[in-house]
Design goal:
It is built from 14 helices and 46 strands. It folds into six domains: about 1-120, Immunoglobulin-like (Sandwich); about 120-265, FAS1 domain (Roll); about 280-285 and about 295-415, FAS1 domain (Roll); about 425-525, Lipoxygenase-1 (Sandwich); about 530-635, no CATH class; about 640-720, Immunoglobulin-like. Helix 3 crosses helix 4. About 15% of the residues lie in helices and about 40% in strands. It is mainly β. An eight-stranded mixed sheet has the order 26-25-28-31-35-32-37-38, with no helix packed on it. It has a seven-stranded mixed sheet with strand order 11-10-16-15-14-13-12. Strands 18-17-23-22-21-20-19 form a seven-stranded mixed sheet. Strand 33 (about 550-555) and strand 34 form a beta hairpin.
């Protein structure tokens, strides 16, 4: 031991720095004596060199440890007191290097050492942005920086793949890093979470488009400069009064330096040419020629579907991918005119528009090269389309594809110069066609009409129509009415100012929900007025908030079922909900089918047309019982209304300040009330026989004109002031 200490002292004090450099020119020196490297732990920076000098014994320098960033090895030599230069190693790659003298048992005797190679690289700069280092926090680019390090610093991640760029090495780069708001906007556009977007299959190439070989400080960027990126395409620099831009992104912070390059912060994510649009919906939204089809997609609630990303969301039931045959605005204008619509807005509000839109969507990807003559495609509404391919091009049920292959990440869009043909169904029952008009008042919050709710029409328990209002104001749709059937109209929506009306073939308002939209059960097409009364109100209570799920109330007149109100069709939790029901006059039986869950907390109350209490079964801790023999209306109900007001009508309707009331005998005196959709009295009238009625000064919208005589005849007419 004394010998080794004396020898080490001789080396330190006996050789001048100049003498050592003469043997081995290097930035650092490591001395080898018997079983010792001095220093045994050496920190250096990237690009520095280390000289290895053997002063005693037979040793090599073995840096082939598999964990080393790079391997190095110097052959064994016999050292002496003058020092023998074994060689010089330059370390260009950051990391920790372990090495030994592997001669014989020297590693087991402790002849091991380390060299730590460090540098503040672009990868370190990205890490500082990722972890919001105080000096860089204001740039708010951690998402983009994290993505850069994930894909472009593979040496940081065990088992990661190199994509031809490594920000952690000596290669010099200029990196354009998007801000957090820019990456958030891209995630919103692509309908992806951070993790889904990070794992997107072409993310590495997209990131490489943000990286340029070489160092370009802000002062080096000139107007009109083009620089090839590591992705292969070139970016363009422009300089204006507001500052510098790269492609269409503003450079907002500059010159964040590292040992191997510089980073600039930009306010948009750069998009290489030829990359697909984010989703098929975004392709349509970004087109100036498809604004009407875009509106139709949103009206029919298909926007979320068409922004699905099934390629990535393997753990989610995301719809798609899609092929969308998107008709242009000109095609929709022509289609509206051809099919007798007053304008394109009337077409978009048509109850058939959902089927028309669905016929243009296929849940699979078919680029033009995938389509062949005679091919059949299943649409989003389970219909089938026939493809033909000939010298004229590609046609779908005879409609030509105008521009093919607008690519998206979740499918492809083909632009159509015409709509795929659609056969409008004839809506006609044995009692004609009824019309439902849905009224939505605008609100300052900009919410969807009826909060996205709907009006569902059931005929004898079968759903025959279901529509949601697309616009604030009035939206109407039609459905067939058949004799001997029972029509139930089930409302779901936001309440408040929602309203709707049901009118028959002759324009007679069968039911109006003015004063608060509620469901109406038991409407009978073609029935005489003497055969029905009401509507009565039935108030269902449920303190358990289970929505009477699985329960029902059946109303019988004698042995005949006149109204059936089920709750498994439209389940939603409630404390209290009211519905209306048209019933037969005379004694009625209210028969309860108990709810499935906690029926002891359920109950119901029945009021007649005048608001008088008929039934109250709200006792807690017991299942709501049935009620029998409840008298409602008089069996001799007057039919004078039909005799007096039969054939009564308003013209023109819609009105523009004045209408003509027709169809009333000249000797009949009547009173009228104009009622708004929220149940408020707007104006009163009195007259006899047919005459003009003025609406001047009345706001645009839908109203009910309620007529009556002193003898009790009544009639309600719908009128639209435009």
């Amino acid at each position: 031991m004394i010998k080794h200490i004396l020898l080490f002292a001789a080396l330190i004090f006996g050789f001048t720095q100049a003498e050592i450099q003469a043997q081995c020119e290097a930035d650092h020196t490591v001395y080898l004596t018997d079983f010792v490297f001095t220093p045994s732990a050496l920190p250096i920076t990237v690009g520095e060199s280390v000289a290895f000098i053997n002063a005693e014994g037979n040793h090599n320098v073995d840096g082939t440890n598999e964990d080393n960033p790079e391997s190095f090895f110097l052959e064994s030599l016999e050292g002496n007191i003058d020092g023998v230069c074994m060689g010089v190693i330059t370390f260009d790659t950051p990391g920790n290097y372990q090495y030994t003298s592997s001669v014989g048992v020297q590693p087991d005797l402790g002849m091991n050492a380390t060299i730590s190679v460090d540098a503040y690289t672009l990868s370190d700069l990205m890490s500082d942005m990722t972890y919001a280092d105080a000096s860089l926090a204001y740039v708010e680019s951690w998402e983009g920086a994290y993505a850069m390090n994930t894909y472009l610093s593979p040496s940081l991640y065990q088992g990661s793949t190199s994509y031809g760029v490594d920000l952690n090495l000596l290669d010099e780069y200029t990196v354009f890093v998007p801000t957090e708001s820019a990456t958030d906007a891209l995630m919103e556009l692509m309908n992806l979470s951070q993790f889904d977007m990070l794992s997107f299959y072409d993310m590495p190439n997209a990131l490489k488009y943000h990286v340029v070989p070489g160092i370009y400080m802000a002062e080096d960027l000139t107007d009109g400069m083009t620089i090839e990126t590591t992705e292969g395409q070139s970016i363009t620099i422009s300089i204006n009064a507001a500052g510098a831009m790269v492609d269409d992104a503003n450079i907002i912070y500059t010159d964040f330096t590292a040992s191997n390059g510089v980073a600039h912060i930009i306010d948009k994510v750069l998009a290489p040419a030829g990359y697909p649009g984010a989703t098929v919906l975004d392709v349509i939204m970004q087109s100036e020629n498809h604004t009407l089809f875009e509106q139709a997609i949103f009206n029919e609630g298909l926007d979320d579907d068409l922004r699905g990303q099934p390629i990535l969301n393997d753990n989610e039931d995301a719809p798609g991918p899609f092929t969308v045959f998107a008709p242009t605005d000109a095609a929709l204008f022509a289609f509206a005119e051809l099919n007798g619509f007053a304008d394109v807005d009337e077409l978009l509000a048509s109850q058939e528009m959902d089927e028309i839109v669905n016929r243009h969507i296929v849940e699979a990807v078919y680029e033009s090269s995938d389509l062949f003559n005679g091919m059949q495609l299943q649409t989003y509404s389970n219909d089938f389309l026939n493809v033909s391919v000939d010298s004229d091009g590609i046609a779908v049920d005879g409609a030509l594809v105008e521009q093919a292959n607008l690519l998206a990440y979740n499918g492809v869009v083909h632009s159509m110069g015409e709509l795929i043909p659609y056969d409008f169904p004839v809506i006609e029952g044995t009692c004609g066609t009824w019309t439902a008009s849905m009224i939505s008042a605008s609100n300052p919050w900009g919410e969807d009409p009826w909060n996205g709710g709907s009006l569902d029409i059931y005929a004898d328990g079968v759903l025959i129509a279901s529509e949601s209002p697309n616009n604030f104001g009035v939206d109407s749709f039609s459905f067939p009415a058949n004799a001997n059937s029972t029509i139930n109209v089930v409302y779901s929506g936001g309440g408040g100012s929602d309203a709707y009306e049901i009118e028959d073939d002759n324009g007679y308002v069968i039911y109006s929900s003015s004063g608060g939209a509620r469901s109406i059960y038991g409407l009978r097409p073609c029935s005489e007025s003497a055969e029905a009364c009401g509507p009565i109100e039935i108030q269902f209570n449920d303190d358990a908030q289970e929505g009477w799920f699985g329960g029902s109330l059946s109303i019988y007149s004698g042995a005949e079922l006149v109204t059936y109100i089920p709750f498994n069709q439209t389940y939603s939790p409630f404390y209290q909900v009211s519905v209306m029901a048209q019933v037969a006059p005379g004694p009625l039986d209210f028969v309860v089918q108990s709810p499935f869950f906690e029926p002891q907390y359920a109950g119901y109350v029945v009021f007649d047309e005048a608001g008088a209490l008929l039934v109250e079964e709200t006792s807690t801790n017991e299942v709501p019982p049935s009620s029998y023999g409840i008298e409602i209306c008089e069996a001799s109900a007057s039919s004078v209304r039909d005799n007096v007001f039969e054939g009564t009508s308003l013209y023109p309707n819609p009105a523009n300040g004045m209408v003509q009331l027709n169809g009333i005998a000249s000797h009949i005196e009547w009173q009228g009330q104009l009622i708004s959709t929220d149940g408020k009295l707007v104006k009163s009238y009195a007259g006899s026989g047919a005459q003009s009625i003025e609406f001047f000064g009345i706001a645009k919208g839908l109203y009910s004109l309620n007529l009556k005589t002193s003898e009790g005849a009544t009639r309600s007419l719908r009128v639209i002031q435009q």
